[in-house]
Amino acid sequence: ITKSFVQKGIKSEDVLIIQIASLRQAAIVTFNKKDLKSRESEINQVLADNGLAPVEIKTPREFIEAQKRRS
Q1: What region does 56 belong to: left with phi over 0, alpha with psi -120 to 50, or beta?
Q2: Residue 43: predicted pLDDT
Q3: What is the crossing angle of helices 40-49 and 12-24, to 10°?
Q4: Quick one: DSSP state of residue 35?
C-alpha cells in the first residue's frame, strides 16, 4: 500500500498517518492543502483498493466548524 501511495506522489511520511487514520476511522486535520487535502479522493481510492476505510481530510477551519455544528 505504501508503494501505491508513493507512486501517486503522496509523501512517505504521510502514508503512515493515512493508514492509522483509516484503521481508527479518524479524520486527518492538516494545514497541508497541497499534498493531502487536495488529494483526498486519490488517497481514498488507494485505501479502497486495499480494503481499507476512507478518511476525511480537513483543514483546521473545517474541523472547528464541524465541531461547532456537533455542539
Answers
A1: beta
A2: 96
A3: 70
A4: T
Residue type, 4: S
Q: Which residues contact 4 (CB under 8 A, 6 or more apart)?
A: 46, 49, 50
Amino acid at 24: R
Contact 59, 69 (CB under 8 A): no
Q: How far apart are CA 43 and CA 56, in angstroms?
A: 10
Q: Which helix (H) or strand (E) holds 66?
A: helix 60-70
Question: C-alpha grid cell for residue 70?
Answer: 456537533
Q: Give the length of the chain.
A: 71
Q: What is the DSSP string of 50-64?
A: TT-----EE-HHHHH
Query: What is residue 17's predicted lDDT score, i.e. its pLDDT?
Result: 94
